[in-house]
Design brief:
It comes from Corynebacterium spheniscorum. The chain is built from 15 helices and 9 strands. With 461 residues, it is of the alpha+beta class. 38% of the residues are buried.
Length: 461
């Protein structure tokens, strides 16, 4: 059972749902006694209890009585002092641990985790808002979450956490927050909802499952260390427990940190380089990703589409290498189009072989996903992660693998959906992939600075 976070209830009004027994009395004492009681309540949560005190009827009183001694040993962040917290740590033989100091800036015009170089691990978590909540509660939630995410991503222990040691290795952690279609109804601002914020139309080849689809709020949590990722994910879920129910969690991975040179395109489980056509300059990202029109509060935000794509490795691996490359329209080793030599060469769809046949099959994935000449805006930024799970019970497949396909754009009605419509109509890869999940979220603008919080422009408009 989750312990009430008394020290934070002085600043934020929690909804009454899921209130723990005794929480009301503790909160009242804090209000009556001012800051002294708040400190005592905070200390009560952090005080280590002996087995006798924990089991005894007077255990709670004993814990409060010892709170002052516990606080006297706390560090500047309100937690247990952490040795070697400043600067790189080493293993004892002089070897540096680079991920200790690997910090991605949290505050700014844009949220991190979009233009940020991809990390090795992903936890994507979608939530449903509890019934009966509204604008006031969503303000409280996003202020709390922003505070927690800001501290976690900077390698600091978040308030309410009793494990400061777990936050010492930020490892390029980013936490990115977005909201779904229903969020605007909950806060009473349906008129502010972007026109494109709705479900992607279901295509004829889709086999969408509710367990991988939809959601009122989403957190994209990426990190180069799986332990830090797990700790951060658990903390964020626990922090929002009074407001939200977890709808689904999708986990993914790429190459481990250091396995590839920085900037190299990662591979999916078909062995293909995945993300070659992403925008590579701030100017291209401004054209394709960042929202610049509509209400002022939405500027610097973006749209995130999440598609869960099952990949049939069993039948894909039957193909010879040439057939795999023809289906994709690119070589597997360099990722170059079949008409080029290097990964980023432009494909030549007019080139033919000695028999007069197109070198790049018009039904290949590259040809079908490429924007038509009269629609250059049909581009987007991919941020896909692999998943590889045990086979589903009762399945005759040896694998349960695929992509957590994430992409960012200004408007999916003008970018993702037209591209996916062409791919659904004809794409060689459709023989080996199936879309089984779909969600659309508005990724809120950045905080702007240390005094801001996610969604502030919308919630306080």
């Amino acid at each position: 059972m989750r312990t009430p976070r008394h020290d934070r209830q002085e600043n934020y009004d929690f909804p009454e749902t899921n209130t723990q027994p005794g929480a009301e009395g503790a909160s009242s004492a804090g209000v009556a006694s001012g800051h002294g009681a708040a400190a005592a309540a905070s200390a009560e949560r952090r005080a280590p209890l002996s087995r006798r005190a924990f089991l005894g009827a007077a255990g709670t009183a004993a814990a409060v009585g010892s709170a002052g001694a516990v606080l006297a040993g706390c560090g500047k962040d309100g937690g247990i002092p952490m040795p070697n917290a400043d600067g790189p740590q080493d293993t004892g033989d002089g070897q540096e641990l680079p991920l200790v100091d690997a910090i991605v800036d949290f505050d700014g015009e844009y949220q991190a985790g979009i233009a940020t170089a991809v990390q090795a691990h992903l936890n994507m978590v979608a939530f449903d808002i509890k019934e009966g909540l509204g604008l006031k509660e969503m303000k409280n939630l996003l202020r709390l979450w922003t505070e927690d995410a800001r501290r976690l991503t900077q390698g600091k222990n978040p308030l309410g956490s009793l494990e400061p040691e777990m936050a010492q290795v930020p490892a390029n952690l980013t936490i990115t927050c977005g909201v779904g279609e229903r969020f605007f109804d909950v806060i009473g601002k349906a008129d502010q909802r972007p026109e494109w914020l709705h479900d992607i139309p279901e295509f004829s080849l889709d086999q969408l499952e509710d367990r991988w689809s939809h959601g009122d709020i989403v957190l994209q949590i990426c990190c180069d260390d799986p332990t830090m990722l797990a700790f951060s994910t658990r903390h964020m879920i626990r922090s929002g427990h009074n407001f939200l129910d977890t709808r689904w969690v999708q986990q993914g991975f790429l190459n481990a940190d250091g396995a590839l040179e920085r900037g190299r395109t990662p591979r999916n489980l078909f062995g293909q380089l995945d993300g070659t056509v992403n925008p590579r300059t701030p100017e291209e990202r401004m054209e394709q990703v960042w929202i610049e029109d509509g209400p002022q509060w939405s500027h610097k935000g973006t749209c995130m589409v999440v598609r869960r794509i099952a990949m049939n490795l069993d039948t894909w691996e039957i193909l010879d290498r040439e057939s795999r490359e023809l289906s994709m329209g690119r070589t597997l080793d360099t990722g170059a189009p079949l008409t080029g030599e290097h990964e980023f060469d432009d494909p030549d769809f007019e080139a033919t072989d000695k028999y007069g046949l197109p070198i790049i099959d018009p039904a290949s994935h590259v040809a079908r996903s490429h924007p038509p000449k009269d629609k250059p805006h049909e581009r987007l930024q991919r941020r896909a992660y692999n998943y590889d799970l045990p086979p589903e019970p009762g399945s005759n497949l040896m694998s349960n693998a695929g992509l957590v396909f994430i992409c960012f754009q200004k408007n999916p009605d003008r970018q993702f959906t037209p591209i996916q419509t062409r791919l659904n109509e004809q794409d060689r890869l459709n023989q080996w992939i199936t879309h089984i999940g779909s969600s659309v979220f508005f990724i809120l603008p950045g905080t702007g600075g240390e005094d801001g919080y996610w969604g502030q422009g919308l919630l306080e408009a």
